[in-house]
Recover the amino acids of this structure.
């Protein structure tokens, strides 16, 4: 399993959703988070796929409803998000 620092994923979320990185934590959720709507969700998915060289399954795209869930989904693809 490949380990990636959590900051890498936070950077993707912050850049794609145009929010401050400091507000992103496990409670950062689709629909509640600023700018995280259906259009930006697909941009977020594309950025994650590009960064990690993976192709997410449709079920995982739909299930990715929070920052915490994104980390869990990435583990299914052999990417463990670690603090730092």
């Amino acid at each position: 399993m490949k380990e990636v620092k959590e900051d890498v994923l936070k950077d993707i979320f912050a850049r794609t959703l145009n929010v401050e990185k400091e507000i992103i934590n496990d409670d950062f959720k689709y629909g509640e988070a600023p700018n995280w709507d259906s259009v930006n969700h697909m941009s977020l998915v594309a950025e994650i796929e590009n960064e990690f060289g993976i192709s997410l399954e449709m079920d995982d795209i739909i299930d990715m409803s929070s920052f915490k869930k994104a980390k869990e989904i990435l583990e299914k693809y052999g990417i463990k998000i670690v603090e730092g």
Notes: The beta strands are 2-5, 79-82. The chain has one domain: 2-82. The mean pLDDT is 96. The helical segments are 6-17, 38-52, 58-63, 67-76.
